């Protein structure tokens, strides 16, 4: 709540420019028989609870396949056989983008996996006699380590760049602290509402995170202190009309995932941390730093909202402090630090004997 006698400043939302008349675009795939089966399948995905983002991604992949089939005169689902799908998989493997680079294995996997779901649905609904994609082997996805990991010093430098003397800086400091404390995704931060914060129990409720799954995560004391200060001092000055969004923009509207990422990247640049990534870097840093401090990987799985433990285990390969300590303590070729020159000489004698 505002302090006694405090004069609140309010900002009116910027005037919205009238939208221009929408241009009519012609769908190049309109009228193709296969496209009708695709749209029926996508409708089924929505009815059965798949997220809109999943439906959009699968529409893109299936339309690409329909376009490829049209070029080869394949018009009906029954025309598509296992050899046809094998040809399409080879097409994706040898395809080259305008810059000459191939599709990554992840992109190939993303183009083929929706086909398995689509043909399984077609067979189950008796639109085709058998599922030609039942034995389609998807590319094996490589397990990459995160491209960059922030150190504790780098994280603290980024957090310190947000100036809490202004409402905008105070909002950004609270948002950065919350990201590092909880490891939330940018989409999850943008969805947060006022009632999702339980300061008494230091808990945060994440509603419909990735995969439309809810979870509860604890909030650190420092992050919670900044958050409460933001709610008391900054948010009342930023919000234009009362609504439930936790974080709001300079004009009082709910922040978007892009807004969150842009502000994290901005403070990274201010702090001189030039590493690829933005919001996810704080998520990676939180997981790695907790592992190095002794956290169990299954606890991190629950905090990060990973459906599979194998996704969380990637951080065990990044967190090498424990491995380094064991290596230093047990490797026979180690050189222990000596307190004096005599001790150092004594320490080196076994090594010299070995060389002889």
From TrEMBL:
Biased composition (Basic residues): 1-14
Positions of region (Disordered): 1-20
Domain Core-binding (CB), chain residue ranges per copy: 32-123
Sequence intervals crossing the membrane: none
Pfam family, one: Phage_integrase
InterPro entries in the record: CB, DNA_brk_join_enz, Integrase-like_cat_sf, Integrase_catalytic, Integrase_recombinase_N, Tyrosine_recombinase_XerCD
Keywords in alphabetical order: Chromosome partition, DNA integration, DNA recombination, DNA-binding
Domain Tyr recombinase: 140-328
The keyword DNA damage is assigned to this record: no
Protein name: Tyrosine recombinase XerD
Natural source organism: Silvimonas amylolytica
